[in-house]
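To make this tangible, this section ends with a sequence with its structure tokens:
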Amino acid sequence: MVIATDWVRLLVICAFFTAAAGGVAWWARLATPKPFVTAALRAVLQLAAVSAVITVVLTRLPLTAAFLVLMAGVATATSAARTKTGRKGIWVAAAILAGTVPAITALTASGLVPMKGIALIPIGGILIGGAMTATTLSTRRALDTLRDRHGEYEAALALGFTDAVATRELIRKPAAEALLPALDQTRTVGLVTLPGAFVGMLLGGAPVWQAGALQLVVLLGLLAVEVVAVTTVVELVARGKIRRASQVGEVRLT
């Protein structure tokens, strides 16, 4: 009876938050309720599916590696869809992986993160998710800037700048705005936010100092991963590898 009551409470509060998000967005004319309902339903289905297989995945290293590859693939597809880059969206994978793979390698090589699924999947998920967000935001800002300030790009070419240099000069600062959430989270950790790694270890019975140390490593690693992602995005956009379909041919790249 207690378990049933808890499930009812869970469903009610989840439905409340979803309805609140969709309702406020619709009232404020920010968006229709549909994307919020869709996101909530997908979250339910995906977490249910992950919960069903995670026990097996965590106990076998090859399956853990495959799950991390799946995470990276979904992150790439999500970022490509958000940035509306079409076939060229495959290049966002380079931005997502450029910092994530070295970061996970460094963590495991140092011994701070053991080569076990129970550690690799949550840490890998945090890093991949952060890289995905930074990639999406920086790509959108860079491509929007390239569209809105195309006249400045043409002027730079007239002054003798190469295509890539002119593009970098335009998009570098707007793309860097994608780093603000990670910077603010790191600067305010413990004062405003208590991130998941810290809380999870405390709930699991780990000493406070150990939870804090791991969270510090994760936050700084996440910061490094996102900086590499944004830097990669700037370079790929400058070289014409990442473009929206509507912008193909708009910038004359060598």
